[in-house]
């Protein structure tokens, strides 16, 4: 049986979520250990923090939630009405990562670029191979016959 992750997200309010963690974090961790938690993690963000805890099954999670230390910690969050979010799964309520689509190029990118000038120069008529429209390849010196 695979362990199930649960997340408790606490958002900053008049009191920061970090100070809530200082006050109640040890009690939550000890309760998780005594409540048969498999693993737990704390993640601190600019908007608050996330406490992730993993239990073997949902019954262990529900029993942990009913512990007095857990109830007291959840009642003491900085904003109990809108600053607490509890959900199944690992933390971060933003959902699965989806990369942004590329933006369309600005209208200035649609301007025609100047044409590159030929570095070869014009083709002379005496350099065209008879019967074709292709110029003769330039003569290359033979390194064995013409030492430099």
Helices and strands, with pairings:
Elements: E1 4-11, H1 17-34, E2 37-44, E3 48-55, H2 58-65, H3 68-75, E4 84-88
Antiparallel strand pairs: 1-3, 1-4, 2-3
What structural class do helix, strand and pairing data support?
alpha+beta
Number of strands: 4
CATH class assignment of the domain at 4-80: Alpha Beta
Question: Can you give the mean pLDDT?
Answer: 79
Bin the strand percentage.
Answer: 15-25%
CATH architecture of the domain at 4-80: 2-Layer Sandwich
Beginning-to-end CA distance, first to last residue: 79 Å
Shape: elongated
Q: List low-pLDDT spans.
A: none
The helix content, as a percent range, equals 10-25%
SSE arrangement, N to C: EHEEHHE
This entry's quaternary arrangement is: single chain
Count of alpha and pi helical runs:
3
Biased composition (Pro residues): 135-148
Region (Disordered): 90-113, 129-148
Please tell me about this protein's structure.
This protein has 148 residues and is α+β, with helices and mostly antiparallel strands. The chain has a domain at 4-80: Alpha-Beta Plaits, CATH 3.30.70.100. The chain is 23% helix and 20% strand. The chain has three helices and four strands; from the N terminus they run βαββααβ. A four-stranded antiparallel beta sheet has the order 2-3-1-4. Strand 2 (37-44) and strand 3 (48-55) form a beta hairpin. It is elongated, with a radius of gyration of 35 Å. The N and C termini lie far apart (79 Å). The mean pLDDT is 79. Residues 90-113, 129-148 are annotated as: Disordered. Residues 135-148 have a biased composition (Pro residues).
């Amino acid at each position: 049986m695979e362990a199930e992750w649960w997340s408790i997200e606490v958002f900053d309010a008049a009191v920061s979520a970090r100070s809530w963690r200082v006050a109640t974090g040890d009690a939550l961790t000890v309760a998780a250990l005594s409540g048969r938690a498999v693993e737990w993690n704390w993640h601190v963000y600019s908007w608050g923090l996330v406490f992730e805890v993993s239990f073997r099954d949902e019954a262990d999670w529900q029993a942990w939630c009913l512990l007095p230390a857990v109830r007291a910690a959840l009642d003491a969050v900085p904003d109990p009405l809108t600053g607490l979010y509890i959900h199944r799964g690992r933390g971060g309520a933003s959902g699965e990562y989806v990369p942004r689509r590329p933006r369309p190029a600005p209208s200035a990118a649609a301007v025609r670029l100047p044409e590159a000038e030929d570095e070869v120069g014009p083709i002379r008529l005496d350099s065209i191979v008879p019967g074709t429209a292709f110029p003769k390849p330039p003569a290359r010196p033979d390194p064995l016959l013409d030492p430099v």
